[in-house]
Amino acid sequence: MLAAASSIRIGATESTILPLVQKYRGYKWTPEPLSAPESWVDRAEYDYQKSIRCDHKYSMEMSPFGLLATGGTFGQRTRTTLAIRAVMNVIPARLRGAIGLRDWGAGVDLSTRDGRIQSIRGTLLVEGRSNWLGHEWRYAAEMPDHRLRGRAFTIDSGILEMENNGGMLVQDIFTPDATAEQSDVARELDVACLGSFRGCAGLCDIAPRTVEYARLHPDAAGNPVLPKCR
User: Fold this and answer.
1) Helices of type H across the chain
2) Which domain holds residue 96?
3) Which element (helix H / strand E) includes 59?
4) Kind of pairing, strands 132-140 and 166-174?
5) Measured between alpha carbons, how far is 6 from 72 in angstroms, rounded to an integer?
6) What single-letter DSSP state applies at residue 105?
7) Are 112 and 119 in contact (CB under 8 A)?
8) Is 193 inside any structural domain?
9) Which residue has the higher pLDDT, 141 or 218?
10) Residue with more model confidence, 33 or 225
11) How many CB atoms lie within 10 A of CB 194?
12) Residue 149 forms part of a structural domain
């Protein structure tokens, strides 16, 4: 699903992504409208958000145990997944991986404006050995924050707050002006640890190229708190 999303181009017609949405039983929705301009402390940010506002979004999600239970069939919480989660909650994470109960979830959001693709976002959340790990890439016609306007590629990080633990997420954002290397770095994942007995120890396991790129190109980093990989 993430690989298919990575092949979508900004400006493609909305009709071209419908087969993918149908395949993964995605759903279409309309974001909440912006609040009144006078409620914004930063008026420049309001004006910018208004200029990049999307008309609709399509969301797809996949998780084996109902982690991303927000509407997509692949992530719904059924009686079975609720029962499995009840069992998972009493088994330590370091032991669950050995019996195939390592939790994870993947999601894709496609934003459209005037019938064309405006942005694509892919997210992977993985239950690591001691905490949750996340990688998110966003390919957009414009940067999502006016303070980043004019940049073609940026790397940032954030805190994850999950149902059963916390963790860290690394985020790559790039525009059509990004280099081929930056586009590759942003969307490259290493999920080998997800199916291994050892499990995923940190962001260096699932997003090694992003972490390394941020180290070598500090100008591309927004305000990331990233580990040093061996």
Assistant:
1) 2-6, 18-23, 43-51, 79-88, 93-96, 180-187, 203-206, 208-216
2) 2-220
3) strand 56-62
4) parallel
5) 20
6) E
7) no
8) yes
9) 141
10) 33
11) 19
12) yes
Strands 166-174 and 116-127: unpaired
β-strand partners of 118? none
Q: How far apart are CA 84 and CA 102, in angstroms?
A: 11
Q: What is the greatest pairwise CA distance in the chain?
A: 54
In a domain, 194, yes or no: yes
Number of domains in the chain: 1
Residue among 60, 66, 144 nearest 109 (CA): 60
pLDDT tens digits along 61-106? 988 766 554 444 444 566 776 777 677 777 776 677 666 677 888 9
- The burial of 60, by beta-carbon neighbours within 10 Å (0-12 exposed, 13-18 middle, 19 or more buried), is given as buried
Beta carbons of 162 and 132 less than 8 angstroms apart: yes
Contact 160, 166 (CB under 8 A): yes
Question: For residue 185, what are its two tokens?
Answer: 């770095």
Task: Report the b/e string of 13-33 with b at 16+ CB within 10 A.
Answer: ebeebeebbeebebeeeeeee
Please name which of 67, 97, 90 lies closest in space to residue 163, comparing C-alpha atoms: 67
Which pLDDT does position 67 carry in this prediction? 58
Mean pLDDT over 106-123 rounds to 96
Greatest mean pLDDT range, 100-104, 114-118, 194-198, 210-214? 114-118
Encoded amino acid at 204, one letter: C
